[in-house]
Specification:
It contains 15 helices and eight strands. By secondary structure, it is of the alpha+beta class. The protein has a single domain, classed as Cytochrome-c3 Hydrogenase, chain B (Orthogonal Bundle), CATH 1.10.645.10. Strands 1-2-3 form a three-stranded antiparallel beta sheet. A three-stranded antiparallel beta sheet has the order 6-7-8. It is globular.
Length: about 375
């Protein structure tokens, strides 16, 4: 029997739409309810981060990095600062490295909790969203203890940190680790292994590993396709080579490798690995002065550097060109969300409109990162 074709319809989803996770516009070409093409239209946020950086001194750029992926400010700062320190040839105290890792992993947990909660909300489950945001508050309280800010920090400085951690921070971080383990089991039972949620996400938006690699996809979106690639192990930076943790990948436990459910579950599993890293770092953190290597003036010689890190969304990199002045000549940010969303058209064809919501949510994008 021949397929019944209707007249093609163009439908705009966004840019003001709750399921686009920001000001993203998706132009859908539809045959009835079936998606034939998805065209993401970017540029509604007008961040202009890279151009702003040219008018700022190197330390002044750090608050701007906070505002790119605003759910991942600590990791944004870390990648940028590492690139500047590479230009300067600075070696920071070991205590600074340990604290940076702790902060980056706490930020990964906070980011993944938002990803899990909002993804549940995309599928119609409100309760997991509330639980995840309740638990994220506990991470933000730790950031507030150490630097006074809850979302945009300017905490990781070139050569060190703005503040040292306190005994209260260490105590509360240990308490958080004990608290989150059973909570994650509860959230998995509530959402991850929920029959309705699995039916909405399993075998939807299958991303083959070769397509993901060719498109420059990274992070949980890549690992959901079964590719065991994590920069913390594949190309270690800072002191990640000192910690014991596993790379989480999609296994097809529910659905098939590379589908929405497997991309989602990688983030849930990674929270446990971040807790393992934090435990090890807290137990072995050395003494030291967190500002002993902070330069009075940041003025690298003419040259260039590139540093990439494993942010919660994927590979985040900064390419910096110095002309020997106090301001960078050029700062280029490699955004994981920008690359990840590039495959949405290829893996959405043949699905229904409601499936596009789940496919987009499985990428865990942030528009400040895309429209940088």
């Amino acid at each position: 029997m021949a397929e019944l074709r209707t007249e093609e319809m163009i439908l705009n989803m966004g840019p003001q739409h709750p399921s686009t996770h920001g000001v993203l516009r998706l132009v859908l070409t539809l045959n009835g309810e079936i998606v034939e093409e998805v065209k993401p239209v970017l540029g509604y946020l007008h961040r202009c981060f890279e151009k702003h950086a040219e008018a700022m001194t190197y330390p002044q750029v750090i608050p701007y990095t906070d505002r790119m992926d605003y759910l991942n400010a600590m990791s944004n700062e870390l990648a940028y600062v590492l690139a500047v320190e590479k230009l300067l040839g600075i070696e920071v105290p070991e205590r600074v490295e340990y604290i940076r890792v702790i902060m980056a992993e706490l930020q990964r947990i906070a980011s993944h909790l938002v990803a899990i909660g909002t993804y549940g909300n995309d599928s119609g489950a409100m309760t997991p969203f509330l639980y995840c945001f309740m638990d994220r508050e506990k991470v933000l309280e730790l950031f507030e203890i150490v630097c006074g800010a809850r979302m945009l920090y300017n905490y990781i400085w070139v050569g060190g940190l703005s503040h040292d951690i306190t005994p209260e921070f260490i105590t509360k971080t240990k308490e958080l680790v004990k608290y989150l383990r059973p909570r994650m089991k509860m959230i998995n039972n509530l959402l991850s292994y929920n029959k309705i949620f699995i039916e909405r996400t399993a075998k939807i938006g299958i991303l083959p590993p070769e397509v993901a690699i060719n498109a420059g996809v990274s992070g949980p979106t890549l690992r959901g396709s079964g590719v065991k690639y994590d920069l913390r192990k594949s190309d270690p930076y800072s002191i990640y080579n000192k910690f014991d943790f596993d790379i989480c990948v999609g296994t097809g436990e529910r659905g098939v490798v590379g589908d929405c459910w497997n991309r989602y579950i990688v983030r849930a599993y990674e929270i446990e690995q971040s807790l393992r890293i934090i435990e090890q770092a807290i137990d072995s953190i050395p003494e030291g002065d967190v500002q002993s290597a902070v330069p009075k003036r940041v003025k690298p010689v003419a040259g260039e550097s590139y540093v990439r890190t494993e942010s919660p969304k994927g590979e985040l990199g900064y390419y910096i060109i110095s002309d020997g002045s106090l301001n960078p000549y050029r700062v280029k940010a490699r955004s994981p969300s920008f690359c990840n969303i590039s495959v949405i058209n290829q893996i959405s064809r043949g699905h229904m409109i409601a499936d596009v919501v789940m496919i987009l949510g499985s990428f865990d994008i942030v528009l400040g990162c895309i429209d940088r």
